[in-house]
Design brief:
The chain has nine helices and 13 strands. The chain has 247 residues and is of the alpha+beta class. Strand 7, helix 3 and strand 8 form a beta-alpha-beta unit.
Length: 247
Amino acid sequence: MTGGAIKLDMYLAPPSEAAFAVLGKRMRAVLEENGVDLDGAFAAGFAAGHVCGITFATAPEGRYRYLATMVADSPELPAGYYDSLLVTSARGGLSSPADFDPARHRAVINEPGSFSGNLTFAAHMQAAHGISLGEVMRSGAHLKSIAMVASGEADLAAIDRISFSLARQAVPQDVDGVSVIGRTASHPGIAFVADAGLPDPVVRKLRATIMEFRDDPAWPELQAILGVADITVLDPQNYAPMASVAA
């Protein structure tokens, strides 16, 4: 759900649309009940929603107020953190990320500014294997990157763990066409945020509404679709190290 005062456009695909619409409606109700002008100007560009962790980490002071983070359902990760899964074609793909040769193989990213699909991907390949991604292809979305790897158009991609769970529901035939051969370091996940100009009581109510969403019938549906176990509140400073990956 996106548009106007609410921005919930990440991890959005047909399987997840209904659940995010329920959450968006709840968040919008908080704003309306507290007299927030939904047509007003917001430094964040919206009143409440979610943004990539790197966007939050590098934002100028006075743009966002942190609210909460979803918890990936994985014992390998700290609560509220996620990583990217390195995928190759299931039919004759790479045996290991270390086998990637930019002179012979092609990596695909979703967007240049994507933390999970490009920045941490490139950083991991360099740090773990001393390999540059070389000239990359650009898909525009994680699910499209999976399709390109599954078809053999690309040899390697990094897909954040929650997007990969979404892909299992949205494009299962493409997921069946790839193999996971590695993972990047973990970092704090997508952040629910509010515009920094909102009054403190409204920010607190928005956070409470997100946490209470776990009692809504739509929450188990979203858990299954995204592979998430919970929603937690992190120390916002946990996001700061992400900026060094993008440097």
